[in-house]
# Entry
Amino acid sequence: MNLTELLDRSADRWPQKPALIEGGNTVSYDGLVQQVADISLLLQTLEVPPGCRVGLCLPNSINYVAVTFALWKINAGVVPMPTEYTEAELSSVAETLRLGAMISHKPRAGSQPLLGNLFFTRLTPAAPPDNHGLNIAFIRFTSGTTNASKGVVLTHETIRDRVAASNQSLGITAADTVMWCLPMSHHFLVTIVLYLGVGATIVLARHVLARPFLEAVSQSKGTVLYAAPFHYALLARDNSDAKISSVRLAVSTTCALPPDVAEDFFKRFGVPLTQALGLIELGLPCVNVDDPAGRWDSVGRPQPDYQIRIRNPDRDGCGEVVISGPGFFDAYDSPWTPREKLMPDGWFVTGDLGRLDEKGFLFLVGRKTAVINLAGRKIFPDEIEAVMNRHPAVRESRVHGEAHPHLGEVVAAEVVLHHAVAPEVLRDFCRARLGPDKVPASIHFVNAIAKTAVTGKIRRPAAVAA
Amino acid sequence: MIAQTQIQTELLEFLRAGIFSEQVAVAEDTDLVANGFDSLSLVALLQFIEKKYGLWLPESEINEATLKNIRTVAAVIVRLLHERPPAP
# Structure
């Protein structure tokens, strides 16, 4: 199975229908399939072999989508690399996941032009990657916060299954126009792939500011919004009389929806925000399509093919959220750990704390994992700690998410020093080595950092959803 | 009270160091959005302002008029700092 079949099927049924709209540029389903074919031919002449892992460092664009499907067409694996990554971060991902090539929107050392603003760089991994015989489509780099491994591996078949299961409640069809403003490098599968598989039209918002976004909704008669609370907060404060009457579904994802944003958005537009629970390992097991207005603070009931249980509940029924269902990740990479080994009983421990109400709606009350969610981007503490620890004044550091009323969470650091240094100096040190989103917003100097007794590993406080 | 020119200088320094690539010659009247100031940059700028001036730009102020260039951002910061009740 190859995911390009989903796109081809849509092109057969709706050849002339717009697939993607980027500013004044519209590409039809037929046109997109053609672009995919053209790029895949170019990649073949560059001798990108099947099974090769290719880093993709592009901003949201039609090209982003076309290159992803082109890589799939030649059976290469796609590794998204957010454009905010610094050179050091890009090299680290390339090395860890053994990338054989990289496609970027900027020329790089040793790169050659591929097409238009696309550049191809051949890389030489220390050893060829071992795909363990899997038909790998996608590897999401995570810096191993929840475990030692560095990549979440997904095959074509897995993505096909999760996309199908994710759309049971969303019900996206060819009649939908999706307004897109999240970074594709962080969100792509149960979103972009899903929409293209059912023949929907995707409008790439050029900016998240309220006025231009609302104009785009009205002009393209958008029916679905998929964004983070940060974006909805901006929209909710718009003081024009712009309406979004064409919108049937507004999904809020990536972090907990603050109550005032939910309320203000509903007041301003008359459309309730639908929360969802999405995890790269699982897909989109929950989306609150049943009661977004009444239970705005729930991520909803599990979609039909998923089951949710609360493990070790306390007196209030609150405990660890565990989930089973189709299309779960195939393995972690580097070191390789197959899914069966991680969840032998078929249940995935999400790291979220939550409870189910009497109607089966899931409410998340906090997180046990350490991933920081900053306005739709996922940030891994140990990556930042590794950088801070390299500063000569730093003996040890611990990074965690700090609740922020507008951004979900921001990066905060506790640092044990060898000798005095100004916080701003440490921040500059980080800024030179990490993307701007990862530079700690606050740095606290402490005398010691709590460790877990058994492993000597740094103990992270359970972050409470904002 | 901090002068608008000083805020402009500080914003300029921040945007040059942390947001724009070397290819963009950022000045006080550079059109930010036209030069690739995106959602990520916005989040970083909002955090910088919060940290530096103890001020979270309210969503009602986050619009094209405010984010036109560094001058307009600084002007909004100055206005909000003036409007803010003095600390007790």
In short: The first helix of chain A runs from residue 4 to 13. Residues 452-457, 461-466 of chain A have pLDDT under 50 and may be disordered. Residues 251 and 317 of chain A are 26 Å apart (CA to CA).
